[in-house]
Amino acid sequence: MKILVVEDEDKTGMFLQQGLNEAGFNTDLACNGIDGLHLALTQVDAYDLIILDVMLPGLDGWKVLETLRLSGRDMPVLFLTARDQVEDRVKGFELGADDYLVKPFAFSELLARIRSLLKRTRITPEATVLTVADLELDLLRRRVSRAGIRIELTAKEFSLLELLMRREGEVLSRSLIASQVWDMNFDSDTNVIEVAIRRLRRKVDEPYGLKLIHTLRGMGYVLEVSDKI
Amino acid sequence: MKRKLSLIWRLTGLYALVSGFVLLGLSVVIVFSIKQHFFEQDKETLQGKIQLVSSIVSEGVGAGTLPVFADKLKSGLIGHKELLVLVMNEQGVPLYSSGGVTFPLNLIKGKSSVSSPHAITWSAEGQSYRGLVVTKSTIAQPKQPISILVALNINHHELFMSRFQGALLLYVVIAALISGLLGWLAAKKGLLPLYQMRNRALAVTANQLDKRMPVENVPAEISELANALNQMLERLEDAFRRISEFSSDIAHELRTPISNLMTQTHVALSFPRDARTYQSILASNAEEYERLSRMISDMLFLAKADHGLELPSKETIELDKEVADLFEFYDALAEDHNILLRLKGKGEIQGDRLMIRRVINNLLSNAIRYTPTHSTVEVQIEASDKSTLLTVNNVGTPISAEHIPHLFERFYRVDKNRMKGNSERVGLGLAITRAIVVAHNGEISVSSTVERTSFKVTFFKNDSLITKT
């Protein structure tokens, strides 16, 4: 997966590139709009996704996107901006942007958005049973079992586990979890998510040797077969 | 852009023009009356004379001999040297003329059929005359009509009139100029407060918004304007004060966490440490960053709210349903703390769902935070014709009265020491809550006793507000 990052802020650009490379993407970095557009238009092996800062020297993000779309490039474009104005969002979407992220953002949030944008372009058949190690979640029958033993979960616990399993290996921030599971689309500064995860863990992880749900302090939660923490 | 003539010059011009016109009109009336007066005077004088002359003439002509009536006339006119007399027969042949003057024969002849005296005016050789013409029939036979003219030199009248008119005109011009000048002075003086206001306005800067327009010793109209401007200044000052307070709040609130981060990072970098320590430091930093970022977006929200919050969308919201959803969200947490969540009543309002959720969420999370274990947090919804009331009740240590008026101010913390340990809370939640409630045509209040603390949110229905005001 090839990603182009167009970002004039040196540090941000470098960290984005590093982070994305470590997440398994092949990332190029351009420091201004003109270089970015040039790279996006001339690369033989086209980019799968472009991350575009709005405020860029030379050629701003809007113009880059406009030119790209005019030349028939339809790869997903994700805007990064420090400006949080509704008009900006509207303009971005009108010009054909696929997503919009306001700085400062959690890196895990960016990764999640990138993955969902890339998924959107590929058609993957919906799985009805999610499996991680010996944990199984049956979406149709709404059942969860581990090592063959059924686990009783509340509706919200089920949704939470489903989210974690669907995004296996992705770090999910608390606000993302609150938004996806409870539809709470604002920052709630309580430890509701912590409690919910703790309860889920008690049922899904505690009785078993292999821990699947991990806490990444300062970032969020991840479900994966790993013991790096 | 075409520059308009200044008010002072306009007023000056207007004054001069008006007084000029008025005086000119008056002069015309005066001149006309004087002329009329002279005319009447002359006519009266002449009427007496013409009777005298015509009686002499009619008798004289009747006597048949010219010299006789000429002599009679001459003697009769002694003592009336200024009087000019012309006697003329039907054919226009002068029978008698008091000489030295050219008489306007055509004027006399034309009127000769009239029996009542007729006034004529003429000029000759640079002199003006006014006369009366009368046509009489001779007493003696054969009766024949003769015309008699009696006239006076009215040159002195004319001279007087022309001098008088000249004087009047001069007076009008001067008076117009003077009233213009007075107008200028009056306008200047009248507008003086405006200049003072201008100077005052020039002195108003961001640092000196406390300057006000002079309201005393100014005319009523201008004091109204000054009052209006002062009110504007007051509003501006208030808004400006809020903005600058806001900026200093931001600076202040950002300084502490950034200083923490800086110190922690510097200390961490000063010695080599193992990976776990670094990880833990970075994680702690990340938490702090997240808090900062949340604070910034909260402050942006409040900054926007200061300029009047516009609702992104408006829909019917069932409050009880929203509360139930939030209860579901807090379910696990409440259970952990052994707190019972209870909902009573139902009601709906118009508004933005996300924002209303935020309001309920803020109140609910506060309530849960400050409620001791094994107690209840109760949300009560009451709907009436005019408003919908949402109350969040919880037991717990009451909020002391001194804090109540400040609770909804941003960055206000009830217990500054207790909050220090818990960096999660920055004191914006209730300020945001109030901003949203206000944007929804509502109000929020709080009461706190030993039994319970209640946050009351009242959403007014739009039409009820109209009848209210």
Automatic annotation (TrEMBL), chain A:
A GO molecular-function descriptor: phosphorelay response regulator activity
Domain Response regulatory: 2-118
Keywords noted in UniProt: DNA-binding, Phosphoprotein, Transcription, Transcription regulation, Two-component regulatory system
Pfam family, one: Response_reg
Domain OmpR/PhoB-type, first and last residues per copy: 127-225
GO biological process: regulation of DNA-templated transcription
One annotated Gene Ontology cellular component of this protein: cytosol
Coiled-coil intervals, chain numbering: none
Modified residues (4-aspartylphosphate): D53
CDD domains, alphabetized: REC_OmpR_CusR-like, trans_reg_C
Portion annotated as DNA-binding: 127-225
This protein's name: Response regulator
Species the sequence originates in: Neptunomonas marina
Source lineage: Bacteria, Pseudomonadati, Pseudomonadota, Gammaproteobacteria, Oceanospirillales
From TrEMBL, chain B:
Transferase keyword on record: yes
SMART domains: HAMP, HATPase_c, HisKA
Domain Histidine kinase: 249-463
Domain of life: Bacteria
GO CC, alphabetical: plasma membrane
Catalytic activity reported: ATP + protein L-histidine = ADP + protein N-phospho-L-histidine
Compartments in which it is found: Cell inner membrane
Broad class of enzyme this protein falls into: transferase
PANTHER family: SENSOR HISTIDINE KINASE CUSS (PTHR45436:SF15), SENSOR HISTIDINE KINASE YKOH (PTHR45436)
Name used for this protein in its record: Sensor protein
Species name: Neptunomonas marina
